[in-house]
């Protein structure tokens, strides 16, 4: 039997039953990577010798009666996580030789749970793109169409899962970096509630691995099924033992409902800043129909929904000001000159992003205060609804675009061009207030490309969108392997 596309839960059951060993699963995964990854280019840093050794140790542990959550399961890790003995570059050539001495906390949790790490997956330069390419490791392609991107910044992980390179992967998300690649490659991903999973060691090679949680940013699971997302999230969740973990433990509340007909869902498919492409709109409507047919209460509008235009503006201000503080793009004097030339009436997202590059502390505090107002608005909305269904990006995977200035790139939405980074507004809807969001496959575009949607849930009620994802997988369909 071939196991490459089997869910992690199925692999674990088979190993418990003695139907397969971790060594056999690991050898099969490595053989598939060696056969297929030359074109996909998902695994940028293989670690096969240590993977085989870990698989042997997993089989020996099981023979002794041990049974850990991921014992013997082959997995991959996004390149941006520190793995002792392997390079962590974030695709930045000046750091191509940086090799950390310690594992990131989430890599340690994977290993403690018994997972077998096959290697690291490709990312964009500095994790700052909606594609995954860099001068060190090259370009990761979409397994469904090699002329298109796998997404970013966890594009290598999504492409690996879609290609059968391991059963699970871990990534990160600040601008849809888990959800967009899942949407583009036809797999599942979960952006946890902000602060739910510790991120120490998922850090740029220029910075020390301190127990600091960055604003907006999370680490999270990727898988081929919704149930596998929950399995991996349970391993990842929990505070850093150096900080909140000294006194706090995580006990996520159960999903609000077990049955589809008990869910109350708000469905969105329009945004004031960018149109929704026909393929994505059709996917959202497909999910809405499945929800209604399953007995769920489905609404298309609510006065409780926070203002989408202000949400997008706040998100861009917080995202860009934080990014520029860590990765300067040009001199402050040049930026201030450009901002001074903007019209006061220009409230486009391009102008919002440019102004955010010179954001003052006062501006940042003001934006954070408005964020808290939005968070309170979401609390009120989730008293009436259990989840929000909406796009992840306006289109399926787009053709590779490596033009050097991302600010000059354009995204084609049904034949009309829009600023490249405007497509982040849907991802930012959950990111800005720190809400959990689960990306689920929702069918195919007319060209045969995967199309996903996201299920946004209440803060720290991650099991609610995950359960809804599980139920939708049963009625809409889940992962399909590329032919």
Structure characterization notes:
This protein has a domain of 248 residues: Alpha-Beta Complex (Amidase signature (AS) enzymes). It has 14 helices and 17 strands. An eleven-stranded mixed beta sheet has the order 1-3-2-8-10-9-16-17-13-11-12, sandwiched between helices. Helix 2 packs antiparallel against helix 3.
Main β-sheet: number of strands, strand sense, barrel status? 11 strands, mixed
Count, helices: 14
Binned strand content: 15-25%
Shape: globular
What is the number of strand segments? 17
Q: Superfamily at the CATH H level of the domain at 8-255?
A: Amidase signature (AS) domain
InterPro entries: Amidase_CS (IPR020556), Amidase_dom (IPR023631), AS_sf (IPR036928), FAAH2 (IPR052739)
Pfam families: Amidase
Protein name: Amidase
Domain Amidase: 24-464
Looking at this protein, list some descriptive labels.
483 residues; alpha+beta; Amidase signature (AS) enzymes; 11-stranded mixed beta sheet; two-stranded antiparallel ribbon; 14 helices; 36% helix
